[in-house]
Specification:
CATH class of the largest domain: Mainly Alpha
Bound molecules: magnesium ion
Helix content: 55-70%
Number of domains: 2
CATH topology of the largest domain: ADP-ribosylglycohydrolase fold
Distance between the termini: 23 Å
CATH architecture of the largest domain: Orthogonal Bundle
Radius of gyration: 21 Å
Number of strands: 0
Shape: globular
CATH superfamily of the largest domain: ADP-ribosylation/Crystallin J1
Length: 388
């Protein structure tokens, strides 16, 4: 039996669209996110089934691929790697992946521009002034133009440009772009980000010292380029996400939020169901109970725990991209960043077709055009793109 035929026989299927996502068709963050891939062995040195089982059992593989691996316990290692490649690069429709990746980046920028208007307001102040706030109108404490983005999107673009210019992952290039951006007098910059970037500018420091107080959301809000460039490799995701985070934020709670969010984005872009995503958040809450968001406390501050609780609450409660985002930003507080993070997650899940056109039309065309180019480049240069 040929390898491709074997894969089809065990029922690996493509995710169709979000509304058809079921437990049987869901996909995940790619292959084998928690374990190292075995090295290629000559036929004479192929391990027996037991070794492959040891390799498989501890990892959180996606449902279909886990089944696939169990079946492969009776195969040689060479066959395993071959099949893994087939599954990794042929399981998903590249057009769907590209669409969800675009929607994640554009969704992030929309959430940033939408939420910035009501940043630092309370939920009741927003309700009194707007009823339900749901249009991109600019203003806010930063006096933005309608559709103007803030540090969330700008720092993400710094990372994207660094990857594209370096043609690879370079924390120095990322930090350089952060420094250039800070010197350009951006419309906003968080205190922890400013401190970390200045430490790079003064001392060349690429990793801030661990700090229990640096648990803001500034590292999580900008992870998307690292997520796209690592698709679908869980180990690369961890490396990129944490290295960019530690330039400014070195804190275990921030790290946990960044990693969980990155993995959720990998899964959503690859077509996972909300049930699957919810189970992944359950794992985070088991390890870090502080992220528990049931019952929802209604806090949406810049503390990454409050931020992620708000995003989780509204993402899992919302039935459309718009519902997720409107619910999130109407909590007020750090609404541009809760909006940006919910926007990237909801965008990755729902895809471009679900993003309201009235919001896309309000965005700065130059920003959207750059995002489109960056997404194409990041996906093309990711393991997924390079191996097609
Ligand atoms: Mg901001």
């Amino acid at each position: 039996m040929g390898v491709v035929a074997f894969v089809h026989d065990i029922g690996i299927r493509r995710a169709k669209s979000h509304d058809k996502r079921t437990e049987g068709t869901e996909s995940g963050s790619g292959i084998n996110s928690n374990s190292a891939s075995p090295s290629l062995a000559t036929p004479a040195k192929r391990p027996n089934c037991l070794i492959i089982k040891q390799h498989v059992e501890p990892v959180a593989l996606v449902h279909n691929l886990q089944r696939y691996y169990v079946l492969l316990c009776h195969q040689c290692l060479q066959a395993e790697i071959l099949c893994e490649r087939v599954a990794m690069f042929n399981l998903y429709n590249p057009e769907e992946i590209r669409d969800r990746a675009r929607a994640a980046f554009i969704g992030m920028a929309i959430g940033d521009a939408l939420g910035a208007t009501v940043e630092f307001m309370t939920a009741s102040e927003i309700a009194t002034k707007y009823g339900t706030f749901k249009d991109i109108i600019g203003g806010g404490w930063l006096r933005l133009k309608p559709g103007q983005v803030t540090d969330d999107t700008e720092m993400a673009l710094c990372i994207a440009r660094a990857i594209v210019k370096s043609q690879g992952w370079s924390p120095v290039a990322v930090a350089e772009n952060f420094a250039t951006w800070l010197k350009s007098r951006p419309v906003d910059c968080g205190d922890t980000c400013r401190k970390g970037i200045r430490a790079y500018m003064l001392k060349g420091q690429l990793e801030s010292p661990p700090n229990e107080w640096d648990a803001g959301n500034g590292a999580a809000m900008r992870i998307l380029p690292a997520v796209l460039f690592s698709l679908p490799d869980g180990e690369l995701l961890k490396k990129y996400v944490l290295e960019q985070a530690h330039i400014t934020h070195n804190n275990p709670v921030s790290d946990a939020a960044c990693l969980c969010l990155g993995q959720l984005l990998h899964m959503a872009i690859c077509g996972a169901s909300k049930n699957r995503l919810s189970r992944h958040v359950d794992d985070l809450v088991t390890r870090f109970p502080t992220f528990n968001f049931v019952p929802y406390r209604g806090l949406a501050t810049g503390y990454v725990v409050d931020t992620m609780q708000t995003v989780f609450h509204w993402f899992f409660r919302g039935r459309s991209f718009e519902e997720c985002l409107v619910g999130t930003v109407n909590q007020g507080a750090d609404a541009d960043t809760t909006g940006a993070i919910c926007g990237m997650l909801a965008g990755a899940y729902y895809g471009m077709a679900e993003i309201p056109k009235r919001w896309i039309k309000k965005m700065e065309p130059k920003v959207i055009a750059e995002i489109e180019v960056m997404v194409e480049r990041l996906i093309a240069e990711s393991p997924l793109g390079r191996n097609r």
